[in-house]
Amino acid sequence: MADPLVATYSIAACDLEARQWGVAVQSKFLAVGSVVPWAEPEVGAIATQAYANPSYGPNGLALLREGLNASAVVDRLTSEDEGRDERQLGIVDGAGASASWTGAKCNDWAGHLTGPAYAAQGNILVGEETVAALATTFEANAQLPLAQRLIECLAAAQAAGGDRRGQQSASLLVVQKDGGYAGLSDVVVDLRVDDHPRPVQELHRIHELHHRLFGLSRREDWLLLEGELRTEVEERLTRLGYDSLDAWAGVENLEERVDGEDTIDPVVLDALREASS
Questions:
Q1: Could you tell me which of 169, 141, 155, 162 has the C-alpha nearest to residue 35?
Q2: Of these four, 31, 192, 204, 245, which has the most CB atoms within 10 Å of its CB?
């Protein structure tokens, strides 16, 4: 049997309006993101943990793709697995229905909560308040983008007690059809903190960096590049040795936030000012 994913809590969830599905997880286990989270746009999201059966991920997505709902997939996967009593599983399907499984032999405290568009679960926790924090935080933050919402869930769960045996790694996976890099990938966010004393805090930091590089400001917030602002931008680019905003942005990995030379994303402007000060 594989090593257990010791002291793990996770949430599988979706945002049906944004058409995004994702999983966030924290564990006293090296590189938890390599095992627990699975997601496919318009199909669903799966978290497999405790004495994890990694096949639950691809096999569960295949069953969801065939049209089974979350509950039916949980039933199918666990009924066919002789090790089910030591497994934990959470699924959200393409319609936002959810289901979880906590085997009778999972180490205390172990349990789960489900609701519309989320399945929250954990094992070897301080207590049930950790999973409760995942659920209540998800329900209370519908206004946030899914990735940020899931990180808030992890932070709340840790503050509520978290893992009984400590922290080590965390992961965030969010998918959307054609919602990733350059509109050519389904992966919106795939961030992993493999070994860190405060993995949720570190995940929050690198997510902010990811958003700075690859996020999008509302188009109405972009600034017209004219008059004094255009002169300032051109002078700063010249100071840095570039003849165009595109050229500089490409080097700084900000190309996804540049669209032509007539307007500028405020995030790009702040980064340019910082780089040329």
A1: 169
A2: 245
| pLDDT tens-digit map of 232-243 | 999 999 999 999
Residue 222: per-residue pLDDT: 96
pTM for this structure? Answer: 0.90
Fold of 8-214: Glutamine Phosphoribosylpyrophosphate, subunit 1, domain 1 (3.60.20)
pLDDT higher than 90, residue 261: no
Q: What is the 3-state secondary structure (H, E, C) of the chain?
A: CCCCECCEEEEEEEECCCCEEEEEEEECCCCHHHCCEEEECCCEEEEEEECCCCCHHHHHHHHHHCCCCHHHHHHHHHHCCCCHHHEEEEEEECCCCEEEEECCCCCCCCEEEEECCEEEEEECECCCHHHHHHHHHHHHCCCCCHHHHHHHHHHHHHHCCCECCCCCEEEEEEECCCCCHHHCCCEEEEEEECCCCCHHHHHHHHHHHHHHHHCCCCHHHCEECCHHHHHHHHHHHHHHCCCCHHHHHHHCCCHHHCCCCCEECHHHHHHHHHHHC
**Phi, psi (rounded to 5 degrees) for 195:** -160, 105
